[in-house]
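Lest this sound abstract, we let one protein speak, letters for residues, whole numbers for local backbone shapes, and leave readers to judge:
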Amino acid sequence: MSKKKRKVNIKHLLIVIGLLAIAIIILIVVINNFKIAVEKRNEEIEKQIEIDKQKQREEQLAQYEDGGLICIAVNAKQEIGNNCFSEDDNIAKVDNGYLIGISKGDVIIYNDDTKTRYEVSVSDLYLPAHIDNNKESLPCEQYTSEETIYLDTVLESKILNAGYKTRAGVLAAARFLSLEFKYRLPYFYENGRLDGSTGHPYADGEGRFYHKGLYLSKDKYELIDPNGIVSGPQIWGCEMFSGAGGVIPNGLDCSGYVSWCLYQAGFDPGDVGGGAGIWDGAYNLPDLGVGDGGAISTKSVDPEAIQAGDIICWEGTIALVVGVDDENIYVAHQYWDNDLEVVTTPKNNLANSEWEYVTLMDNYYYEEGNGAGNYSAMWN
């Protein structure tokens, strides 16, 4: 007797399939809702962790006095003191009392000895201080407006940390442009000066940028007196006409560099130069008329008396001493054949060198300003 085949009830099968589909959908919804709930909870936990971290950081920050801004180049180092630590050693670290720039970014450095905190900005827009007289000449329009603003902030920070209206502040400006700036600043034969003392036409921003900051962005044109524009205006590195040099890149001349450094640090001797003669019977600076000067010799000015921040010259040109060690003096000189360079001269040969006379600036820095500041005879 053969078995009868059971007929499949299509209707019942469809119902079962439908119920299974509904169950799967419900399961998916439940799982998704659970995942959403878990993710939301994790987000809340992470958010609370960040809030707690921020609260802890604010509490930590409150324990330290604000020491201001420190700007440092990648791979540069400077003294900061013992017992310091960094929030992020990947940006800047402290090693044996020295702050070292590691990579671009901002970080907080804490000094537990002084209970001081510093905001540190590390950048590759400038270099660790070093002598390099073979740098590329500054190209025209090399920097954006934002980069120029940042470099101005760096310059101002270095001057303030060294001491505003001090010898060290002048050195900070002089060393930044001659030793830390990425490019060699062109020499520009000036078309005139702001005070018109040279007999040339009154001119502003041509070989003599007697204003605050670096002349690297056209935004600085608003500082320039339109009545004093003889040629240009053009920022540093961009070509314009010079009465003595033809069409050449704008920059500074020798006394323009010295005046610029003094002005950045808060001194205002006037837009003046080295002159070309003898003042009151002594080799000095006729236009500047500051300091105690004389010919470089053991009888007049002993080379051992010269400090970084003093002014040194030969007839008709003027420069700044930016470093002094046991054997040499180092002079930042904006000169027509080499642009801005740093010249190394042995002390024992100074009286026989090209440098003829010096202005010892102690009296000027103390009488017109706040003295030596955080002076260092050499850069880091």
